[in-house]
Design brief:
This protein has five domains: about 1-55, no CATH class; about 55-275, no CATH class; about 305-315 and about 340-580, Spore Coat Polysaccharide Biosynthesis Protein SpsA, Chain A, CATH 3.90.550.10; about 610-620 and about 645-870, Spore Coat Polysaccharide Biosynthesis Protein SpsA, Chain A (Alpha-Beta Complex), CATH 3.90.550; about 890-905 and about 920-1150, Spore Coat Polysaccharide Biosynthesis Protein SpsA, Chain A (Alpha-Beta Complex). About 35% of the residues lie in helices and about 20% in strands. An eight-stranded mixed beta sheet has the order 13-12-9-14-17-16-19-18, sandwiched between helices.
């Protein structure tokens, strides 16, 4: 008992030990071991039984895996993926960790956890900490995001559609002002707590929502969904957010409840203690999405000739209830009623198949009573009796599939035929690539389904592939019969679009061995479901749904095979075919259009010849206050001062127009006093008197537009002319596609504006299109005069960049009938604003802005028409248009990599024995050699004059017979756990040898790029040396506080001085690595050492890592160029195939771990 009393403080008992023991006599019992001896405390049999039960729970494999995942997520919440152990100790009971978790749990998961030393943020002393060995992307999904997924909300919408569940006590009412603030706060984008949002203003509502997301996620990770307030604030202090946590607890009583029982403040997540919880989502969560895709032009293998597509269709199985217009659907110049639209969709479905897989056939299963006629080659009708009414169509579809397979099996039993594979699909899908690959790459399955990461409805019957063998069709039929039975008995009354999905999910997931967690990984896999071998294909490739509100191929990853136009997206399917069929070489058209945006050689309709662009420009309307360098801007080899830069931008603006729309003209409205001279074909100056000073330029712009329209109207009244349409734009935009479509597709508007989903400033005067008729120009002039009046009277003192936006918004949104919610949908629409018919075009297509810090067309969807370059992005405008030929630098670049045939292990991939890629199977050594050869292949395609040097172990049995490739043996320790350390040593040895050679005999300058051997060089890297002539060594960085730098890509200038400085820098890194991080995880030591060497310099500002822009800094005596990983070390998302999701201006792609098979 005496010993127990001494443990009061460490056990954090609320009272004395004796009182505590006496209070819980059902748990503790006391006895006297002998006369004169102190009493002894022990557990009662009931308590000991509970203890054994607790130990059984802790030791169960399921609980251990769940605990490891929750602990990993807790560390990931910390940003740097590490936390002091004392913080975890405070939370361990709430986390459900065993009391001896360090020895019984952590020690068994060395791939997850590592104990290290960190500086305590409160005491500034070194303390023990737990760190996550590597970031687990699959775990970086918050509780609210998982709930949104379960409701079918796609990733690109979740950030705007997630709000926090609010539960207030009975009788608790918010005052109107507070309720309005809460509603607006809830509508702010949801930023994942696993993302870094420290760049936000700490006092902003957006930052507060991110803080609440962290607190919500932390409490969600706890078993009891509650913890002491002190524990919560202790965690917040480690993140530097303690004050924000306190503020959030006060501001959000509907999310967090603070209990004061037992003299302890406990923070409780309210939603966890509600009997019924419904996820709170913002209104108007709808989906209409679009398409952007490259169609492979490479020769096919002939498999598609033995593939037949099968769909169920009847002319009354589609209703215009799926689209906004209940009577007619308008696409381009065509208007479709219900029946016509259904037939048009069926024909487009066939069109896509016959372009993508020209030798395949199409069979349409239809109602014998349906008046359906399709006169197309390689298309046939197959009537099957059944119930094809709208509410029973999904059930009938499965019956029809079964009937079709039974007929085919009967035919095969009577007369064996060539194997024909079948793909059963909806008729609202677009096949945009060869699907023969499914059958070539997976020879042993019977039936294939598509899956998505959706707990409730992971499977769908809209895409089912069946192998053409007799056995496979029999197994597929039996499987579908089981699904039909479940559908008919359990889900017959379910929503007509859900029954098949629920039945499929139950049949598949009810098998005891089936692991549904694989649905979250996005990788194809096979599984025996009963007697049927089922191949599961990811919807992200084989049943991709376009994002809401976009047009044509908008937002589609380049390796998607099948696009599904669900529900209200069907209209977009018709638009997409027009775009898809506009060139015989779809692949070349889309790639060129996206990357270079060169003008299609196909003749235009003549409209662009009658379009004139009008911009306001004076040589002093642009200031270098907009860019970082206040005196000069450097782009490539050119340096621009203020005036030169303005003129360069104007010329690039004209260049884009003349490439995209060569018959159009440009008129420059300018100050008569401006010393401006432009000698260009089809370009003219138009002086207009006014105030062109920087702070009044936006106001003057609208005045100039009005004056110009008045002049044109006067000319038209005197002498009628050909209709000329006008597009008034800023001079910092890039027209990258034909804008004649605006006037062709929308013949009845007067004036067009661009809009974005921004409540405060949804409209902008930087892009205004005006029809060239006399009436339209008059209406546009009256509209702009109203805007000018509002601007002059209400917003004259507003920020110079906001006045026009605020005035436009007031004029438009003050009309009582105007519904501003349409701005959130991203679809073009028309509305009469007073006497003016205004067409509203989405900024996502007609005024798209590249992300801050990106280069060229980084991240631009393929169907963007106009790119807007704001502020610091103007530098990218010149880079984008640069067409100068390569300078030959790549011939003087040599790639250097460290490689030995035993430096790669299949522990990095799921299959521990063999890796299968296509039809090839690789063991450990073969796979390593294959990767090395692919590494060389990429370099020799992207930079054919460059060389490759392989630094290797002299003992390694390595042989590479390739042109321009050589081996360079260096003695060292190449074992797996020491390879990163050896890599830096090898780099230093190599540089020392080259410096010695240069000192003995000067040679031509050869630049070196030291890289991992699991990277793909996909563009010319000579630009690094051309655009940045003065650096010594270049590193890649990412926005990661713990490991911002990496030694997997290091560029070194080929001068003697640069190599010397680079060697000294690497020697310092090696010293830090050897002394401080030698025992760190093998993949982290080099990163930690690099970070310490760079960030320990007192002048270094690490916040620049968050901006994604290249920058230079002297690190000691070495001039280091920092390049963003988003361009020079880009990593594809986990589980994606080939170049899935890669921005078009990426130069180097890095393939980590499980991504390697691609």
């Amino acid at each position: 008992m005496y010993t127990a009393s001494q443990l009061k403080a460490s056990l954090n008992l609320p009272t004395t030990t004796s009182k505590f023991i006496d209070k819980y006599h059902c748990v503790f019992t006391q006895f006297q071991p002998g006369p004169g001896l102190p009493p002894i405390v022990k557990l009662t049999p009931q308590a000991f039984s509970i203890h054994r039960e607790e130990m059984a729970v802790h030791n169960s494999p399921t609980n251990r895996e769940d605990t490891v995942q929750r602990l990993s997520r807790l560390l990931m919440l910390a940003g740097m993926a590490k936390l002091p152990l004392y913080v975890i100790e405070k939370l361990k009971w709430d986390m459900g960790l065993p009391h001896d978790y360090v020895t019984t749990l952590l020690a068994d998961y060395p791939d997850y956890f590592n104990v290290c030393i960190v500086e305590d943020p409160s005491s500034r002393k070194e303390v023990l900490a737990l760190e996550l060995v590597s970031w687990r992307k699959e775990l970086s999904v918050s509780e609210l995001e998982m709930r949104a997924r379960s409701l079918g909300i796609s990733g690109d919408k979740r950030s705007h559609d997630i709000a926090f569940p609010l539960f207030f006590p009975k009788g608790f009412d918010l005052v109107k002002r507070v309720k309005t603030w809460v509603d607006n706060w809830q509508r702010l984008p949801y930023i994942s707590p696993y993302e870094d949002a420290f760049h936000l203003d700490s006092n902003s509502d957006q930052a507060e929502k991110w803080t609440v997301a962290i607190m919500h996620e932390l409490l969600s990770l706890l078993v009891s969904k509650k913890t002491e307030r002190e524990n919560l604030l202790c965690f917040g202090e480690c993140l530097g957010l303690a004050l924000r946590f306190k503020k959030a607890l006060v501001h959000h009583p509907g999310i967090f409840y603070i209990s004061n029982k037992i003299r302890t403040q406990t923070v409780v997540l309210r939603e966890a203690y509600r009997e019924i919880w419904q996820p709170l989502l913002l209104p108007d969560i709808k989906g209409t999405k679009a398409l952007n895709r490259t169609h492979s032009s490479e020769s096919r293998s002939g498999v598609d000739g033995s593939i037949t597509f099968v769909t169920v269709f009847t002319i009354y199985n589609t209703s215009l209830n799926d689209v906004d217009d209940r009577s007619n659907t308008v696409v381009g110049n065509a208007s479709y009623n219900n029946v016509d639209r259904s037939m048009a969709l069926l024909n487009v479905f066939i069109n896509f198949i016959q372009v993508a897989m020209p030798q395949s056939k199409v069979i349409i299963l239809t109602d014998p009573m349906s008046d359906l006629s399709v006169q197309r080659n390689r298309v046939s009708l197959y009537p099957i009796q059944g119930e094809y009414s709208r509410d029973k169509l999904m059930l009938q579809r499965i019956r029809s599939y079964i009937t079709f397979l039974e007929t085919r099996l009967q035919q095969l039993s009577q007369k064996p035929r060539d194997v024909i594979h079948y793909i059963f699909t909806d008729s609202d899908i677009a096949v945009v690539d060869d699907l023969g690959q499914v059958f070539r790459d997976h020879p042993n399955f019977h039936l294939a389904l598509t899956f998505r990461n959706n707990k409730a409805q992971p499977l769908n019957s809209g895409f089912i592939a069946v192998k053409g063998t007799q056995e496979a069709m029999l197994r597929a039929k039996l499987f579908l019969q089981e699904v039909l039975k479940v559908y008919s008995t359990k889900y017959r009354n379910a929503s007509r679009m859900l029954g098949d999905q629920l039945a499929l999910a139950l049949v598949v997931m009810s098998k005891p061995h089936f692991d549904a967690r694989r649905f979250s990984k996005g990788l194809s896999f096979s599984e025996d479901i009963g007697a049927t071998s089922v191949l599961f294909l990811p919807c992200s490739l084989y049943n991709w749904t376009p994002p809401e509100g976009a047009g044509q191929f908008h937002g589609m990853p380049l390796d998607v095979k099948v696009v599904h136009f669900k529900g209200s997206r069907k209209r977009l399917m018709l638009e997409s075919w027009n775009f898809y069929s506009s060139s015989q070489d779809i692949s070349d058209m889309l790639w060129t259009k996206a990357l270079n945006r060169t003008h299609s050689s196909e003749s235009r309709s003549g409209v662009d010849g009658s379009i004139t662009f009008v911009t306001v420009f004076t040589i002093y309307n642009t200031s270098l206050n907009d860019v970082d360098d206040r005196s000069n801007t450097v782009v490539g080899n050119a340096s621009y001062n203020n005036v030169d830069r303005s003129m360069a931008l104007l010329n690039v603006f004209i260049n884009f127009i003349q490439v995209a729309m060569p018959q159009s003209k440009v008129i420059i409205l300018t100050d008569p006093m401006s010393d401006l001279s432009v000698q260009r074909n089809r370009v003219s100056l138009y002086p207009i008197q006014g105030e062109y000073s920087r702070d009044k330029l936006m106001l003057q712009r609208i005045r100039s537009y009005i004056t110009f329209l008045e002049t044109r109207l006067q000319q038209l009244s005197q002498k009628p002319r050909d209709v000329i349409h006008y597009i008034f734009t800023d001079s910092d935009i890039a027209v990258v596609d034909d804008l004649g479509q605006v006037f062709r597709d929308h013949p009845n508007f007067h004036l067009a504006l661009t809009f974005r989903n921004n409540k405060a400033q949804p409209l902008n005067s930087g892009f205004i299109a005006v029809k060239g008729t006399q009436e339209a120009m008059l209406r546009a002039k009256l509209f702009l005069q109203e805007v000018l009046k509002v601007y002059s009277t209400k917003y004259r003192n507003a920020s110079r960049m906001l006045g026009d936006q605020l005035a436009l918004a007031l004029v438009v949104m003050s009309k009582p009938h105007f519904d501003a919610r349409r701005f959130s949908k991203g679809l073009s629409f028309s509305e009469d604003i007073g006497a003016t018919s205004v067409l509203f075009l989405p900024c996502s297509l007609y005024n798209w802005t590249p992300p801050e810090g990106a280069g060229q067309f980084h991240g631009m969807p393929l169907d963007v028409k106009v790119m807007k370059i704001y502020n610091r992005r103007t530098k990218a405008l010149n880079r984008t248009h640069s067409s100068e030929s390569r300078s030959g630098v790549d011939g003087s670049i040599t790639f250097v990599t460290v490689f030995t045939i035993y430096n790669t292990s299949l522990n990095d991939v799921d299959d521990r024995s063999n890796t299968v890629v296509g039809n090839a199977s690789y063991n450990n050594v073969d796979r390593s050699m294959a990767l090395l050869n692919v590494f060389i292949n990429f370099i020799q395609v992207a930079m054919p004059q460059s060389k490759v040097i392989i630094l290797t172990d002299p003992m390694s049995d390595l042989s590479v017979q390739r042109n321009r490739v050589s081996l360079y043996p260096i003695q060292g320790e190449y074992s797996r756990d020491k390879l990163m350390l050896q890599r830096i040593r090898s780099y230093i040895t190599f540089l020392e040898t080259r410096l010695q050679q240069l000192s003995q005999k000067p040679r031509d300058v050869i630049h070196y790029i030291f890289t991992d051997s699991d990277i793909a060089v996909v563009d010319d890297l000579g630009q690094v040396f051309r655009d940045h002539p003065n650096f010594h060594l270049a590193l890649t960085f990412r926005n990661n506080k713990a490991q911002p730098l990496n030694s997997g890509f290091i560029a070194v200038k080929g001068t003697q001085e640069a190599m010397l400085r680079a060697k000294l820098f690497l020697q310092e890194v090696l010293k830090v690595y050897s002394t401080k991080y030698r025992n760190a995880s093998r993949m982290l030591g080099d990163q930690l050492a690099l970070a310490l060497v760079v960030m320990s310099k007192p002048h270094f500002d690490a916040r620049r890592f968050s901006k994604g822009l290249s920058f230079s800094e002297d690190i000691g005596a070495t001039s280091v160029l920092f390049l963003p990983c988003s361009l020079y070390n880009w990593t594809p998302p986990e589980g994606a195939g080939q170049f899935h999701g890669m921005p078009l201006d990426v130069k180097v792609m890095k393939i980590y771990n499980r991504s390697i098979p691609v």
